[in-house]
Amino acid sequence: MSAFDELLAFQRQTEALSSIAERLGWDQETVMPRGATEQRAEEMAAIEAVLHERRTDPRLGEWLDAATPEDAEDQRIVELITRDFQRASRIPARLATELARITSLAQGVWAEARANDDPTTFLPVLHDVLALKREEAAALADGGDLYDALLDDYEPGATGAQIAALFDAMRPRLVALREDVLGAAFQPRPLAGHFPQETQLRLARTCATAFGYDWSRGRLDLAVHPFSSGQWQDSRITTRVVETDPFNCIYSTIHEVGHSSYELGIDDDHAFTPIGRGVSMGVHESQSRIYENQMGRGRAFTGWLFQRMSDAFDGIDLKDADEFHAAVNRVTPGFIRTEADEIQYNLHIMLRFDLERDLVSGRLDVDDLVEAWNTRFQQDFGVAVDRPANGMLQDVHWAVGLFGYFPTYALGNVYSGCLHQALCRAVPDLDQSLALGDAGPAVEWLRENLHRHGGLYPPRQLIEQASGGEISEKPLLDYLEAKFGEIYRL
Ligand code: ZN
Questions:
Q1: What average pLDDT does the structure give for the chain?
Q2: Using one digit for the tens of pLDDT, what is the confidence trace for 59-68?
Q3: What's the CA gap between 46 and 169, in Å, rounded?
Q4: What is the pLDDT of residues 281-319, one digit of tens each?
Q5: What would you report as the CA-atom Rg of the chain, rounded to the nearest whole angstrom?
Q6: H or E element at residue 78
Q7: Residue 132 domain flag
Q8: What does the alpha-carbon distance between residue 109 and residue 100 come to, in Å, rounded to a whole number?
Q9: Are 386 and 334 in contact (CB under 8 A)?
């Protein structure tokens, strides 16, 4: 066996074990008995220990040194294993264990602090998480920028400076559009009523099918925070139900179908190799967003959905497909990122990005975070935060050490703008299909141009290849202005 073959065989087992760990996580969030948390924590810790050992196994270094990849694909595989090996090796085992312990603890403290609406218990533990993350960043950065080192985990190749410039370019047009929309004479009516869980879930399944979800390799379950999980022959989705707001369930489902379609669309040849999964969080989010927003909340698809919903619920309190489309896309002031519309969502991300960059660099102290958040929110949204649970306590990310993750959401939106522009050019009759509840032609185009490659190309290159041009915020902003201009009759 050549060094490269040995490397690949070893990696295949590591990937399979990591897939098992992910399945345990899925189980925990969906069907695991409530009383099993301790047992699951021990099971997870055991498998994580095995994974850490494999990822830092000294034989990897030897195989990597001796490997002679034959083509660009093998070259990329070697590059990705090298990258993971170097990152894993740079982090001392003590730090990795301590981070796992403190973030698991911090998650519980955060949940309680949020429930009690009181940040005082959470801030000391967040302080510890941040200290460890900065230590990790310093180990990874090797003299370079700390934030960039963390960001690299989620969006390889991206830098904080690059993202700051992108956000600076986006902000003025988003703020202006928000002002116009909120000040418009016409304001859409929200959908009101009671929508039983079983009917919502039936409808969610119908929507997942409309977006080409492969039920032979997936399933839909309930979870508190919807997510998708798994790849290759098994990528599952979850959703949630609020009986007063059926859009929550429907659009969470379509969003997660976007994530799963990406994983299920990757070429079988890549399975259980480092290129057998989505290449970055930003690219992943571009898929969930283009399914959910550009297609799912578009006029064509919502026209179809209006009919399905009217049938399923025996009539709804909106008079036609136009009013329905406006209700789906309604813009209202609000504190919560996950409830934000397509315009304000990006502004929520910018706030978090600036604050977490300052936290990681040391420019901002955890003790001043609540005030910094509130001041910034007032500046950006023109409203004072009424309570901490609606402010800096709303997201779990920092508690679990996910510094550098937030910008990938907005990056995903920007990528989805570029891809949507190219998709509309390539599939001119896309709206006709969507109006019939069939996203098939779009899914096919995305599979061909993006999904099937998995991790073969770096994120930016992949998006530029697929969209046929340089990455720019312009397509997204043009799309938002056109869409909301029409809905709000600007
Ligand atoms: Zn997502």
A1: 97
A2: 999 999 999 9
A3: 46
A4: 999 999 999 999 999 999 999 999 999 999 999 999 999
A5: 23
A6: helix 72-90
A7: no
A8: 15
A9: no
Half-sphere exposure for 64 (CA within 13 Å, toward CB): 19
Interstrand relation of 236-239 and 228-229 (parallel, antiparallel or unpaired): antiparallel
Compute φ and ψ for 219, nearest 5 degrees: -155, 165
Tokens 């998480």 found at: 129
Asked, for residue 144, whether it belongs to a domain, the answer is: no
State in Å: Cα 136 to ligand 1 middle.
25
Torsion angle of alpha carbons 443, 446, 448, 453, nearest 10°? -130
Whole-angstrom CA distances from 450 to 25, 230, 327, 423 are 27, 18, 32, 11
Give pLDDT, residue 38: 86
Do both 290 and 414 map to the same domain? yes
Q: Say how many domains are in the chain.
A: 2
Spatial separation of the C-alpha atoms in residues 155 and 455, rounded to whole Å: 12
Q: State in Å: Cα 142 to ligand 1 middle.
A: 31
Bridge partners of residue 81, in order along the sequence: none
> Per-residue pLDDT tens for 365-381?
999 999 999 999 999 99
Q: What is the pLDDT of residue 155?
A: 98
| Closest among 353, 340, 371, 395 to 114, alpha carbons compared | 395
256 CA to middle of ligand 1, Å?
7
Q: Same domain for 332 and 460? A: yes
Domain holding 28, by residue range, is 3-122
109 in a domain, yes or no? Answer: yes
**Which of residues 60, 92, 122 is at a domain's end?**
122
| Mean pLDDT for the stretch of residues 370-394 | 96
Q: Residue 63 C-alpha to ligand 1 middle, in angstroms?
A: 35
Query: Is a pLDDT exceeding 90 seen at residue 35?
Result: yes
What is the 60 CA–ligand 1 centroid distance (Å)? 32
Task: Record the pTM.
Answer: 0.97
Distance 33 CA to ligand 1 centre (A): 26
Active-site residue list: 256
Reading the block at residue 156, the tokens are 């390889």
